[in-house]
């Protein structure tokens, strides 16, 4: 089979049938003699900040002359960005090779009644690729939740990391922070060190409870330990514990705290690897995470952000103060399974003009319903444009040179808008 055929086969597998479980995937991985048990890993879960924390850690390890794998989701530009080694995407040739191998095994499992999903196939390919490539370590990001996530077939990571926890995917993970933390905390391993973002008490108490049951040492920090020196639209600068004058090019105040969590993990894994402080400092600054408070244009300032739940939207709203602009032109859509009433209440009133569009996802909210909800929290002018290209061009048309065009609400939306924006930029 050709690359495109294999890719379409994998993507067509979709989500689990009848609830999330790792049992079917375990059968597939057993067919390959459990590759996940033969690589060193750092396992990262959480609601917000996973991608950034993974990037900080991976970039530091790569720049420390270690061969470092990275498994992240969802992808923004290219499906192959999900699986990387040393900032290089898996090649189409390698992706095809491993997909073909997995395809043959999956056919047999299908006949036996063990259905393996798209994300489980992604995960299997990543484990096989990292093992065959002889990576020194792989940073593995959880896809959804943690307890029943495909990546939770990992048994003994070097470190378990849980980033900020807030309400998201409430129809799957639960409606309270305790329930969501219970799902995220499912990746905590017996005796394994846990590195934890200082989330709300309800979430942290649940994570500490799980860690206690598993005799897992807990490492965390307080916001007071982070000395913020500068936050602007180009970089952040801060000091944290023994790390002085650290800069991030990932902008937004929340990135200071994400980087602090990553620094804790990096300091710990020095026991396994030779990592210099100067390398850490440079690597934190160089780390990238596209589609997260990403500036893709100026005059007017154009920003894309994948914020899609209450906490990340609140952080986005707070970070708007770092930018100098006259009016805010907002491009927006959201998936229907989000707590979008609270998202709208916090975000929409900040906008001077609003353009609503559709998300290319079966869980997307009905556009008419979204318009109705938005009109309840603002008296500003609202444009409803289903076509995403036309919607993006409308936001640019509405903006003056000193305005800010902001697109947010869904990573699926940002994926499409980013492509449209870059194509528009090329065309001048």
From TrEMBL:
Cellular component, GO annotation: cytoplasm
Domain Mur ligase C-terminal: 291-410
Keyword terms: ATP-binding, Ligase, Magnesium, Metal-binding, Nucleotide-binding
InterPro entries: Folylpolyglutamate_synth, Mur-like_cat_sf, Mur_ligase_C, Mur_ligase_C_dom_sf, Mur_ligase_cen
Enzyme class: ligase
Occurrences of domain Mur ligase central (ranges): 44-265
Superkingdom of this protein's organism: Bacteria
Catalytic activity of the protein: (6S)-5,6,7,8-tetrahydrofolyl-(gamma-L-Glu)(n) + L-glutamate + ATP = (6S)-5,6,7,8-tetrahydrofolyl-(gamma-L-Glu)(n+1) + ADP + phosphate + H(+)
GO molecular function: ATP binding; dihydrofolate synthase activity; metal ion binding; tetrahydrofolylpolyglutamate synthase activity
EC number: 6.3.2.17
Pfam families: Mur_ligase_C, Mur_ligase_M
Family: Belongs to the folylpolyglutamate synthase family.
Stated name of the protein: tetrahydrofolate synthase
Originating species: Anaerosphaera aminiphila DSM 21120
The organism's taxonomic lineage, starting at the top: Bacteria, Bacillati, Bacillota, Tissierellia, Tissierellales
